[in-house]
Design brief:
The protein is α+β, with helices and mostly antiparallel strands and 366 residues long. Helix content is 18%, strand content 36%. The strands form three sheets. An eight-stranded antiparallel barrel has the order 9-10-11-12-13-14-16-17. β6 (139-144) and β7 (151-156) form a beta hairpin.
């Protein structure tokens, strides 16, 4: 027998005895650990409290925390950061992170319908720029960036500054009572319980389980107009054809304050080597708040292939596009653009007009 085998035989009984004693102690302590303990739900939540109460309690826990732009921790929070953090800490719900996205996500209610836990929105800079959580009795908790008191404080709506800046109340939870849960964003959204099922914004790019009425790119300007500038390449998926068939550039002006539908109109320039055309498309569009868009118009052909005509047709261009939620790149709101469209040229009968485009859209709220 080797020295290692002798040591193994010698240690095994002691180690086994130690495990038996440890297990016995744990069995004795388990009943005691439940004495006086409160039964909690997921993430330690108290099942006796509503989502609204959990939300308010979590927000009030940050009273006295300093204001920090972009912050969402006890070291400092901005106004929307407080709402975001309170929703996570309390009912364990992920809400949109900015004032604009919260304003679009929430269901607008009248002041007479206002309830504890609703959101109050204020215009302090010429646009929606501040949000607080209503506590009842005309009070709200918020993270203030300026004034005699800053950081997370409780204020009254009746104070002259807040009374003048107040715009509307937004509801993110169902009205108090049985079945209370997340409204799901706007009057057309579906509900989701605070247990964590189908929470808004938790999917890929915030879209997979976000209600279709949720605006993924809320307007942040003053005039209501948004300028979209798009550069794209044209693709050809027909067998035997070179896949890269041309390029396009365009500018579109849209009315972006709409809650559900975004109308627009645009012009552009397109080179398509499959039809030998250089064209100026002019079109109108109708889009949704999640990026889907239908467009229809005509084209003025500067050049076309020898077997084709420059006659103007209507519709001369028709298609469906999608733009992703914006990403900040070099200080710009950049969005991925993809469309499937048909470009009509008089005399074209072989399907050469069907094409795909892929590009980048830069958006500016005016």
């Amino acid at each position: 027998m080797t020295q290692f085998e002798r040591r193994k035989l010698h240690l095994s009984p002691n180690f086994s005895h130690f495990l038996r004693r440890g297990a016995a102690i744990l069995l004795l302590l388990l009943p005691l650990s439940g004495m006086g303990a409160q039964v909690l739900g997921p993430k330690g939540r108290d099942p006796g409290k509503s989502d609204r109460d959990l939300f308010i309690d979590a927000a009030k826990a940050y009273l006295g925390s300093p204001y920090v732009l972009g912050g969402s921790t006890a070291r400092g929070l901005d106004c929307s950061g407080l709402v975001y953090r309170a929703a996570l800490d309390g009912p364990d719900i992920q809400l949109p992170r900015t004032v604009e996205t919260l304003a679009t996500f929430a269901e607008h209610v009248t002041d007479s319908e206002r309830d504890r836990g609703d959101l109050l929105f204020f215009n302090t800079t010429g646009k929606l720029s501040h949000v607080g959580i209503y506590l009842g009795n005309g009070q709200f908790v918020h993270s203030a960036s300026d004034g005699p008191k800053t950081g997370v404080i409780v204020s009254k709506i009746s104070e002259s500054y807040w009374k003048k800046a107040y715009r509307f109340t937004g509801r993110i939870f169902k009205p108090s009572g049985p079945g209370e849960g997340l409204t799901g964003g706007g009057s057309s959204g579906s509900s989701a319980s605070a247990s964590g099922e189908a929470r808004p914004g938790s999917g890929i790019a915030g879209l997979s389980d976000t209600p279709l009425g949720t605006n993924v790119f809320p307007y942040s300007g003053t005039t209501g107009l948004r300028l979209n500038a798009t550069g794209a390449v044209l693709w050809d998926l027909m067998p035997g054809e070179f896949p890269l068939r041309g390029a396009s550039a365009g500018a579109e002006l849209s009315w972006a304050k709409g809650e559900r539908v975004i109308p627009g109109a645009g012009v552009g320039f397109t080179w398509d080597q499959r039809t030998g055309s250089a064209s100026l498309p002019v079109y109108a569009s109708l889009g949704g708040v999640q990026g889907l868009r239908f467009f229809l118009g005509t084209q003025f052909h500067l050049l076309v292939g020898e077997d084709l005509s420059r006659d103007i047709l209507f519709p001369g261009i028709i298609g469906l596009s999608w733009t992703s939620p914006p990403a900040r790149i070099a200080g710009q709101n950049a969005r991925f653009y993809q469309s499937a469209e048909y470009s009509a040229v008089a005399g074209e009968t072989s399907g050469r007009g069907f094409r795909f485009t892929t590009g980048i859209t830069l958006s500016y709220d005016l």
